[in-house]
Amino acid sequence: MTTRPFENRLALVTGASRGIGAETAVALAKAGAHVILTARTEGGLAEVEERIHQAGGTASIAPLDLMNGDLVDGLAQHVAGRWGKLDILVLNAGQLGPLSPLSHVPPKDWEKVIQVNLTAPYRLLRAFDLLLRQSDRARVIGLSSSVGPEPRAYWGPYAASKAGLEALLDSYADEVANISSIRVAVVNPGATRTAMRKAAFPSEDPESLKGPEVVADALVTLLTQDFETRHRLTLPKKI
Ligand code: NAP
């Protein structure tokens, strides 16, 4: 494999201010892509952009709250005007929400998890569909979780959002399979040393987990492959 397989490719990574999204953005840029970084925290995005520049790559930052669908539409319009296509879309941003009995989940927390984990991916697919179709090799990757296909007690909002995300991505994959180059994959990164994992398992030793750069490398490898659309990849806790 060439060291820069994504030369002249444009990638958009959501949730790129920290964790898996940040490392994925850096890895994609090192592999030659120009990467658009989005999240709410402008300082985090600027730090990731600086890391990319230090590594000899290129990036643009687009600070926005994914709960605002109009901002997603605006970003797509900007990308259309400047680049006219999108090659790689990584739907990574996520909210864990409360881990508690469903009857204790405040409606505003339910709304937030569903909006960020499910409605925002729908808005991104809706807004970027035409730009993905302009690519001769488009790839969409969604970050899911083991609790999507296998829900368990106290993880209701997050599990429902990830099950919905997988259904959304499979529906989109089938819609565009025969009329575009777009291929869609769902990745379950498995336990990974990030802020979200710490919030879910505060007493766990972070050193017992793989780092987010391991997930990033696996995503970049997947993106270089000609996987079948509706592909599933699950990574182990340690690699
Ligand atoms: P993380 O460290 O909590 O990072 C989440 C990212 O999402 C941040 O960059 C955050 O940026 C962004 N985000 C959250 N709300 C947003 C909003 N309203 N608008 C825009 N961006 C928003 O999480 P992570 O562990 O890296 O997780 C990445 C993905 O992997 C998620 O989809 C998660 O469900 C999945 N996953 C993680 C694990 C794990 O063990 N870590 C396991 C299974 C699945 P701002 O706060 O700056 O907006």
General description of the model:
The chain is an alpha/beta fold. The protein has one domain (10-234): Rossmann fold, CATH 3.40.50.720. Helix content is 44%, strand content 15%. The chain is built from 7 helices and 7 strands, in the order βαβαβαβαβαβααβ. A 7-stranded parallel beta sheet has the order 3-2-1-4-5-6-7, sandwiched between helices. Helix 5 (156-176) links the parallel strand 5 (139-143) and strand 6 (183-188). Helix 1 packs across helix 7 (212-224), helix 3 runs parallel beside helix 4 and helix 4 packs parallel to helix 5 (156-176). The chain is globular, with a radius of gyration of 17 Å. The relative contact order is 0.14. The model has no long low-confidence stretch (mean pLDDT 97). It binds NADP nicotinamide-adenine-dinucleotide phosphate.
Distance between the termini: 21 Å
Round the Cα radius of gyration to an integer and report it.
Answer: 17 Å
Quaternary organization = single chain
Secondary structure: helix percent: 40-55%
Strand content: 15-25%
Lateral arrangement of strands in the main beta sheet: 3-2-1-4-5-6-7
- For this structure, the CATH topology is Rossmann fold
Largest sheet: 7 strands, parallel
Label the CATH architecture: 3-Layer(aba) Sandwich
Rough shape? globular
Overall pLDDT score: 97
CATH superfamily grouping:
NAD(P)-binding Rossmann-like Domain
User: Secondary-structure element sequence?
Assistant: EHEHEHEHEHEHHE
Total number of helices: 7
User: Structural class of the secondary elements?
Assistant: alpha/beta
**Model regions low in confidence, pLDDT < 50 over at least 5 residues:** none
* Small-molecule components bound: NADP nicotinamide-adenine-dinucleotide phosphate
- Estimate nothing, just give the exact number of structural domains: 1
Number of strand elements: 7
CATH class: Alpha Beta
